């Protein structure tokens, strides 16, 4: 009975998260990024808050602890893996998003990651680098650097459908609408929202920590 109650609570909160993302234009805009679905978008919106707290993409990357470790205390310096600082909870979600992109996507970030994997041969290094690129795209998108969305492609259509499934019949009933009507409303919000076209080949200079 306790397990059943816990599962019901989990489904309840996931439904509310899906509803919040679908009805909030800023969170819905994040869903347009490859690899970002309702849970990741909600977590990003919750922990970032006012994006102007972060003066540059590097600040947001550092906040999530996605910078490679760097040690120059000895005779030589080296760069290691990520971790040990920053928001581990959100970092894990971004790493999972990067893994999903690398497995399933054919977009620019996935192609960039596959080329990097061919050169470096380390999946951990590659997904960490892809998560950093994704975080940079989130910063630019939330700061208002965006381009209009011309059409809702098949992958975004499927993603929205999966989030709508999270809402469920009871959720639509509480919202006083039908699934089809709500889908059309979400699609209209997507077309009026914001999208940042990620160019993985671009780099940014990480600022020194003060």
Structure description:
There is one protein chain. With 210 residues, the protein is mainly alpha-helical. The protein has one domain (15-69, 79-192). The chain has nine helices and two strands; from the N terminus they run H-H-H-H-E-E-H-H-H-H-H. Helix 1 crosses helix 2, helix 1 (2-23) packs across helix 8 and helix 3 (38-48) packs antiparallel against helix 5. The radius of gyration is 19 Å and the shape is globular.
Task: Please specify the SSE layout and strand pairing.
Layout: H1 2-23, H2 25-31, H3 38-48, H4 57-63, E1 70-71, E2 78-79, H5 88-104, H6 108-120, H7 123-142, H8 154-175, H9 179-192
Antiparallel strand pairs: 1-2
Helix pairs in contact: 1-2, 1-3, 1-8, 2-3, 3-5, 4-7, 5-6, 5-7, 6-7, 8-9
Attribute tags:
210 residues, mainly alpha, 9 helices, 2 strands, 2% strand
Task: Based on Cα principal axes, name the global outline.
Answer: globular
Main β-sheet, spatial strand arrangement: 1-2
Percent helix among the residues?
Answer: 55-70%
Helices and strands, in order, run as HHHHEEHHHHH
Total strands: the figure is 2
Unreliable spans are: 71-80, 205-210
Rg measurement, Å = 19 Å
In percent terms, what proportion of residues is strand?
Answer: under 5%
């Amino acid at each position: 009975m306790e397990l059943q109650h816990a599962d019901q609570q989990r489904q309840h909160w996931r439904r509310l998260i899906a509803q919040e993302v679908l009805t909030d234009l800023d969170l819905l805009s994040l869903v347009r990024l490859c690899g970002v679905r309702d849970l990741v978008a909600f977590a990003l919106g919750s922990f970032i808050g006012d994006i102007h707290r972060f003066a540059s993409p590097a600040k947001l990357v550092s906040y999530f602890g996605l910078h490679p470790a760097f040690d120059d205390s000895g005779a030589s310096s080296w760069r290691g893996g990520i971790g040990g600082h920053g928001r581990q909870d959100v970092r894990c979600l971004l790493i999972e998003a990067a893994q999903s992109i690398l497995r399933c996507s054919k977009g620019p970030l996935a192609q960039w990651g596959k080329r990097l994997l061919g050169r470096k041969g380390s999946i951990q290094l590659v997904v960490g680098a892809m998560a950093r690129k994704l975080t940079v795209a989130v910063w630019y998108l939330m700061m208002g650097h965006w381009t209009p969305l011309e059409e809702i492609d098949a992958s975004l259509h499927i993603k929205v459908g999966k989030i709508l499934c999270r809402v469920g019949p009871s959720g639509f009933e509480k919202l006083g609408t039908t699934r089809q009507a709500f889908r059309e409303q979400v699609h209209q919000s997507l077309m009026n929202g914001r999208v940042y076209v990620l160019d993985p080949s671009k780099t940014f200079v990480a600022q020194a920590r003060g």
